[in-house]
Amino acid sequence: MLEQLQMSGSSATVAALAAALGLHTNTIREHLDALVELGMVSRELAPPVGRGRPAGSYTATADGPGSDPRVREYAGLATALAGQLARSSTHPEADALAAGETWGRSLAAGIPVGTPAHARRRVLSLLTDLGFDPEADARATTARLRRCPLLHAAREHPDIVCLVHLGIVRGSLAAVGGDPDRAALLPFSEPGACRLHLNTPTSQAGA
Questions:
Q1: pTM given for the model
Q2: What is the mean pLDDT of each run of 10 residues along the chain (207 residues)?
Q3: Which residues have C-beta within 8 Å of that of residue 156, sequence separation ≥ 6?
Q4: Domains and CATH numbers, the chain
Q5: Contact present, 59 and 42 (Cβ < 8 Å)
Q6: Which whole-number Å values give the CA distances from 72 to 5, 9, 68, 148, in the listed order?
């Protein structure tokens, strides 16, 4: 829901969000109330007309997650890449992974090479900068990616977008001293999050 508001760049009503996301209006209101309390969304109420709850419009706050211009730039570029690969590539999955790896190495350029644990933490920091909001375990071996800057593109082209993300992880891991072959991504593996493994046994890691 937050991604929907951020990507639209404008305000939306409960009814509009319910139609866009395919959810009941009561569910939309509950989540919007929580986002307002967290300061991620602002609400403007229209003057009351008759009985019932006043209509309102909701907007993602300027200082909320995803407002960083680097995140918006990344989202725009990756969405364009996904669409281009889907339309023109004869091997879109392999090309998506390779493009992500090149991108990841570029993003990690200048970061000092360190131990595998150091590498995992630096990659998680990079993913934070890109807007994925990772929640990692103490050893940074696995993380829940609680946001996706490309949620709509990922739903439209999951085989491409998610492989770009895996490629970014593998490319940046390799650049800072980690083992890219031990990275694995499980898209939409749990409610509200994807699961990223950074220390998977090589025999289990896969694209």
A1: 0.65
A2: 69 86 85 76 70 72 55 67 81 91 91 91 92 91 87 75 92 94 90 87 51
A3: 82
A4: 2-60 (1.10.10.10), 69-197 (3.30.1380)
A5: yes
A6: 13, 11, 7, 12
Would residue 165 be called left, alpha or beta, if left means φ above 0 and alpha means ψ between -120 and 50 degrees? alpha
Q: Which amino acid makes up residue 125?
A: S
Q: Using only the alpha carbons of the chain, give its radius of gyration.
A: 19
Count of alpha carbons within 13 angstroms of residue 207, beta-carbon side = 17
Which amino acid type is present at position 9? G
Residue 1's CB is within 10 A of a number of other CB atoms, namely 21
Residue with tokens 């709850």: 53
